[in-house]
Amino acid sequence: MSQPKIGIHNNLPQFVLLVVANLFVGSMVGIERTVLPLLGEEQFGLASTSAALSFIISFGFSKAIINYFAGGIADKYGRKKVLVVGWVVGLFVPVLIIFAHAWWVIVLANVLLGINQGLAWSMTVNMKIDLSKANQRGTAVGLNEFAGYSGVAIMAAVSGYVASTYSLRPEPFYIGLAIGVIGLLLALIVKDTEGHLKVQMAESREEKNSLSAKRVFFKTTWQDRNLSTASFAGMATNLKDGMAWGLFPLYFTTVGLSVTQIGTVVAIYPAAWGIFQLFTGAFSDKVGRKKLIIYGMWLQAAALWFILAVESYPLWIAGAVLLGIGTAMVYPTLQAAISDVAAPGWRASSMGVYRFWRDAGYAFGAILAGVIADFMGVAWAIGLVALMPFIAGLLARFRLEETLKNEDEK
User: Fold this and answer.
1) N or C terminus of the chain: which is more exposed, having fewer CB within 10 Å?
2) Phi, psi of 224 (to 5 degrees)
């Protein structure tokens, strides 16, 4: 049997299939983006913002924990098995939401959604990196995130339209059932990348191609300045996104937008995030990771403050676009930076630790935003949360080294 070849072009059919697969992974989240915050208030009568955002907290923590273990499990048992399990779990999410009689069932559904996303999204990105050359990692991650957040955007808009045409529940979640079935079928079709990973490990000049889970956690969390700075930037990015997920529908309701208009603004943000990752990931392969990370973090903060400062629908759309561009600048670039530093043998584990901290940001953002909103109002919560990506940009400016190396440096 011939040795697998590394490179996107050498594995194009498999790579494209993984891109399509992640479109459906993102679509599972997109179903909820517009509908669930409104569902908490209108159908379950949740008056407290903190209570209404509890579904994001459960999603964020479950996804973060699963991300941490998914990398190690994938390194041990293979990517495809983990991907299939992720989709089996995902099938239960829309069913629970459709038949939920109490808010705790919605919270439970989002625990399962976090597991689905932690397993399925992690595997699609790791499998693409397995197939790619070192100087294609930004491109690979960019395409993966483009597909995923395009799915988020499309379904955020579709679910908003369906909810305004019919009702908040159950109609939007019938679409979720179809997404789950298609996602599972794609997971069964895709081939594992174990052979490609072995080739990369053999070619790696890293002395230690394997590290213990404890050592990888310490290196990625604080011991390695590049890995730890990237992890904090990822957490700040998703802390901002957890806030936006929960508070944007509530904020735009208070300024008088309709459900359809809210769905449009909520969808445009991840749409810009997804589309621009087509370019930012590949751009980081050419110009490096550091500048995109610094200015992307600062643009996220500036976009949130801009949204609070303006008072018209077109300008809110513009703010959502800017927020998406800022997020697109850092999202694939941070993951590419992690894969630059980590050796192939512990790369998925390190990526798992990074994604643990990054996606814990969803929960931290929902907690922080909910508490501030309850005591000071939604606008104050948005403005104060924006400080986190700004601070992360400062840390990247002074602590992060350029991780992209020339071929002759590797």
Assistant:
1) N
2) -95, 120
